[in-house]
Design brief:
single chain, alpha+beta, Alpha-Beta Plaits, 4-stranded antiparallel beta sheet, two-stranded antiparallel ribbon
Length: 124
């Protein structure tokens, strides 16, 4: 079972894991705080767990429910990594194409007078 929910800090993550761990039949619990994904594996009643989670965390929604397939999970993780690598590659490529601060080269013209009583230089 995969439940999507907002997790703000490590304290709320710990509370969520302790809440789910109290149910009979739960063998594995993993929590991805960045994506807000709680994965519960085991032989348990999903409606009871979801009801308990929704009672304390209103935004808890069941994303998927079904038998655990490690090959499918690994393929999904690899697909996610590939998308992230592609996004980072495009971001790095776009950084080199333009500059937000204006032109990078500035031309300075210095006109200096060689007269003995002249005290300055004009730079434009």
């Amino acid at each position: 079972m995969v439940v999507m929910m907002d997790v703000y800090n490590e304290r709320s993550k710990g509370r969520i894991i302790r809440t789910v761990a109290n149910f009979h039949g739960v063998t594995t619990i993993t929590m991805d705080s960045k994506d807000g994904k709680l994965t519960v594996i085991g032989d348990f009643d999903s409606s009871k767990i979801l009801t308990k989670l929704k009672r304390r965390w209103i935004n808890a929604d069941m994303a998927t429910f079904g038998p655990y397939d490690p090959k499918k999970e690994a393929a999904a993780v690899e697909k996610k990594r590939m998308k992230e690598r592609e996004r980072e590659r495009l971001l790095e490529a776009s950084r080199g194409n333009y500059c937000l601060c204006g032109p990078t080269t500035q031309h300075q013209i210095c006109v200096c007078n060689q007269e003995p009583y002249h005290q300055g230089c004009i730079i434009s």
